[in-house]
Amino acid sequence: MATGSPTKSDSPQLHLPMDTGSSSFGMSDTLAKGSSQAVSIKSGRNKHGKGGGPRARMHHVGSPMKEDSSRQLIALEKAKSKRTRRPRNGARDLRGLPKKGGAGGKGTWGKLTDLYDDSGVSDARDPNYDSNEEEDFVVQTTVLPLAPDDFGRTIMPILKEYFCVGDTGEVVDALTELNFAGLQSDVVYMAVAFALEQKSTVRELTSILISDMLDAVVAHRHVVKGFNQLLEDLDDLSLDTPDAVEVLGKFVARAIADDCLPPAFADIRARDMTCLSEKAKSCLTHAHTLLSMKHGMVRLDSVWGSVGGGLRPVKVLEHEMTILLREYLSCGQIGEAMRCIRDLEVPHFHHEIVYLLVLMVLEDGKQEHAERMATLLLELSNSVMVTPDQMNRGFHRIYDNLEDILLDVPYAYQVLSSFATRCLNAKIITQELYEAIPARGRKRFVSDSEGDITRVEKC
After folding, report:
1. 455 backbone dihedrals φ, ψ, rounded to 5°
2. Rounded Cα–Cα distance for residues 289 and 283 (Å)
3. Alpha carbon distance 434, 52 (integer Å)
4. Other C-beta atoms within 10 Å of 381: how many?
5. Mind listing the pLDDT tens digit for each residue in 158-197?
6. Vertex 332, ends 330 and 338: CA angle to 5°?
7. How far apart are CA 434 and CA 360, in angstroms?
8. Residue 349 contacts residue 391 (beta carbons within 8 Å)
9. Which residues touch 436 (CB under 8 Å, ≥6 apart)?
């Protein structure tokens, strides 16, 4: 090996500073230092101070030392570009720094002179929403159609409440809120089928309901379809209600009289009777008979007979109670009298029976009638058709009105005392109620120094 040729260990190394936080100015200094080192290497001086000659200078110029320096500079530039926060996709800065106009970035309030435009807010949850600025529109409530499985559970509570209250307006309002989806005829079917098993009061209310629902809830075709379904199922309905043929015939005749059904519905001559059962034919024949009799349309208003219930006026109830008590005095049939009282269907008004019964005893004054009335009162008490509270209320009403009764019945005190004793012995009334009987006042003249003064004392 030549003396002047540099070895691998003798060749100077280029060490660049790896300061990650250096600026571009520091990088220029580094490049400058690297250039000076490269020049000193190019001069051919080794560590011994001797020159290496032209051959050595050529070796240093083309040596890989310069290539390593370039690679390190490129790697330094790449590392610095990775550490920058500027997005590489060319998007704007997302840190909310001020724009060139000073308006700020995302999430800022904007310029000081900018005004917030709150017009055209369409979100109803926005605090700046104003419904008056919206265009005219119509909001419609969509009611889901009533499923056939839920029909009975929805309609029956409405009908049962109506039979207790008797207000058809509430039923119509409740039914108009429902979406029947073509099941209006089932309302007629369900109401009549339920009334077949009930008393005359419920049947009368059902006829009134069908008439009031017409054109509001159901149409004529729905009523016709509902009664046709009843005629088809009459054989099954007769199993629960033996007189279903006669009762349904009355419903058909009453519906025709109320203009809910066409007269041709019960016309057995114009109607095709081949597809109907024998009971359905008998039903239509009975309806046709009711319509064909003299003054049939007028008589059909009371086709259900005497209708009970608390929906009638008090005067009507008092009149009917008076009639049945007089019939009992004439015939003496306790069972018939109790049946008539039960058919009135006013258990809360039975104290009026007690009042009228005792009043008749006072006005009649006969011992035979008093004994018969006491027997009826005992039967009503034993059957709990008249409760003890209603018994006390009826007698107390007699006690309170005794002064007025005395004007028409002068011996009312004596008759009342005798009848109350009979009821006490039969355990119809209590001892407290018997002792509450008022005593008649006795007039007595007492003379004193001021003159004769009339005093009334209780005996």
Report:
1. -120, 150
2. 10
3. 154
4. 20
5. 999 999 888 899 999 999 888 888 889 999 999 999 999 9
6. 115
7. 19
8. no
9. 395, 396, 399
Residue in the structure block whose two tokens are 């109350």 = 420
- Helices 200-213 & 148-165, crossing angle to 10 degrees? 110
Q: Are 209 and 160 in contact (CB under 8 A)?
A: no
Q: What is the DSSP letter of 146?
A: P
Q: What is the CA radius of gyration of the chain?
A: 55
DSSP 198: S
Pairing of the two strands 451-458 and 441-448: antiparallel
Helical H segments across 332-411, by residue range: 334-343, 351-364, 367-382, 388-400, 402-408
CB–CB of 20/80 below 8 Å?
yes
Residues 218, 189: contact at Cβ < 8 Å?
no
Strand, helix or coil for residue 459: coil
Average pLDDT of adjacent 10-residue blocks, the chain of 459 residues = 42 44 44 42 44 45 62 75 58 53 63 63 72 68 82 91 89 89 90 92 92 92 94 92 93 93 84 83 91 84 75 85 92 90 88 94 90 93 92 94 91 92 92 88 51 44
Closest C-alpha to 325, from 360, 375, 362: 360
Q: Can you state the angle between helices 351-364 and 314-331, rounded to 10 degrees?
A: 50
Q: Which tens digits make up the pLDDT trace of 93-144? A: 555 555 555 565 666 666 666 666 656 666 777 777 777 766 666 667 777 8
Residue 410 phi/psi, 5-degree rounding, is -65, -30
The proportion of the chain whose per-residue pLDDT surpasses 90, expressed as a percent, equals 41
Whole-angstrom distance, CA of residue 268 vs CA of residue 47: 140
The neighbour count for residue 40, using CB atoms within 10 Å, is 12
Residue type, 282: S
Reported as type and span, the H/E element at residue 454 is strand 451-458
CA 437 to mean position of chain CA atoms: 53
Q: What is the DSSP letter of 428?
A: S
Residue holding tokens 């691998």? 8
**CA 196, CA 194: separation in Å to the nearest integer?**
6
What is the distance between the alpha carbons of residues 445 and 60, in angstroms, rounded to a whole number? 165
Structure tokens at 212: 């009031």
Structure tokens at 129: 């929403």
Output the CA–CA distances (angstroms, integers) from residue 239 to 227, 229, 235, 284, in the order listed: 18, 16, 7, 19
Bridge partners of 451?
448
What distance in Å separates the CA atoms of residue 419 and residue 12, rounded to the nearest whole number?
147
